[in-house]
């Protein structure tokens, strides 16, 4: 059974979402404060985290940072503010998705299912990708740079695999987003992709400000350059 780590202080939302997740066959552990979340969190126990940004004693961003120290499970933020800076901050520190309150429960469930499906798909392969000193062990979901492990989030991992599976081929922003986000909802844009690209470059490039592996092809998109 998939287990979800849910951090939220709104009791009505807790009741509704917990019921919906149970009907979908998911088990849920709930924390109502940042302190409870930090006490409850256990590495390798959960398949997905849903974090409310605003908590009585802190923020979901702080919980996200703690999770990212030990895990690359998908993380979704619940936010009451549709501010671009808040959304980008959440993605930049390791989040994989966000949804703005109020939202339709069916939409939220669709996006939860998509995150879990996407994560599972990329942990079930049995091959290896290798290029530019970067090695991806698809069976284990591990990434190495010159033999040293690199910690990536689920979306960063899928983005890297996408590039490495299409070496020296220009991928448009639309193509990348279409494969990275497999929901029907139109909730991602080029700003979101820019954040992911920047974050991935920071982790794999020797000089992220002058990237050699993930190149921007002006007016067309991005490509994985094997001529490094």
Short description:
The protein has 228 residues and is of the alpha/beta class. 39% of the residues lie in helices and 22% in strands. The protein has helices at residues 11-23, 34-40, 60-68, 84-92, 105-121, 154-164, 173-180, 190-204, and strands at 3-7, 27-31, 48-52, 54-55, 58-59, 75-79, 97-100, 128-131, 134-137, 142-145, 148-150, 214-217, 221-224.
- N-to-C span: 43 Å
Mean pLDDT across the residues is: 86
Number of helices: 8
Estimate what percentage of residues fall within beta strands.
15-25%
Report on the structure:
The chain is of the alpha/beta class. The protein has 2 domains: 3-121, Response regulator (Rossmann fold); 128-224, Orthogonal Bundle (Arc Repressor Mutant, subunit A). 39% of the residues lie in helices and 22% in strands. It has 8 helices and 13 strands. Strands 2-1-3-6-7 form a 5-stranded parallel beta sheet, sandwiched between helices. A 4-stranded antiparallel beta sheet has the order 8-9-10-11, with helices on one face. β12 (214-217) and β13 (221-224) form a beta hairpin.
Layout of helices and strands, plus pairs?
Layout (H helix, E strand, L loop, with lengths): L2 E5 L3 H13 L3 E5 L2 H7 L7 E5 L1 E2 L2 E2 H9 L6 E5 L4 H9 L4 E4 L4 H17 L6 E4 L2 E4 L4 E4 L2 E3 L3 H11 L8 H8 L9 H15 L9 E4 L3 E4 L4
Parallel strand pairs: 1-2, 1-3, 3-6, 6-7
Antiparallel strand pairs: 4-5, 8-9, 9-10, 10-11, 12-13
């Amino acid at each position: 059974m998939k287990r979800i780590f849910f951090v939220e202080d709104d009791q009505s939302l807790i009741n509704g979402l917990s019921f919906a997740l149970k009907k979908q066959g998911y088990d849920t552990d709930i924390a109502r404060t940042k302190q409870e979340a930090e006490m409850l969190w256990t590495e390798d126990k959960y398949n997905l985290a849903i974090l409310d940004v605003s908590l009585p004693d802190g923020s979901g961003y702080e919980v996200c940072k703690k999770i990212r120290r030990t895990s690359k499970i998908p993380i979704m933020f619940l936010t009451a503010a549709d501010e671009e800076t808040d959304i980008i901050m959440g993605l930049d520190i390791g989040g994989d998705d966000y949804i703005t309150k109020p939202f339709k429960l069916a939409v939220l469930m669709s996006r939860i299912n998509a995150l879990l499906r996407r994560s599972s798909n990329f942990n079930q392969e049995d091959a290896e990708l290798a290029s530019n000193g970067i090695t991806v062990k698809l069976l284990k979901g591990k990434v190495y740079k010159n033999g040293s492990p690199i910690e990536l989030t689920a979306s960063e991992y899928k983005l890297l695999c996408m590039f490495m599976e299409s070496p020296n081929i220009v991928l448009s922003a639309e193509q990348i987003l279409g494969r990275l986000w497999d929901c029907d909802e139109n909730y991602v844009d080029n700003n979101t992709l820019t954040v992911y690209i920047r974050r991935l470059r920071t982790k794999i490039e020797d000089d992220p400000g002058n990237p050699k592996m993930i190149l921007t092809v002006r007016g067309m998109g991005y490509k994985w350059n094997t001529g490094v």
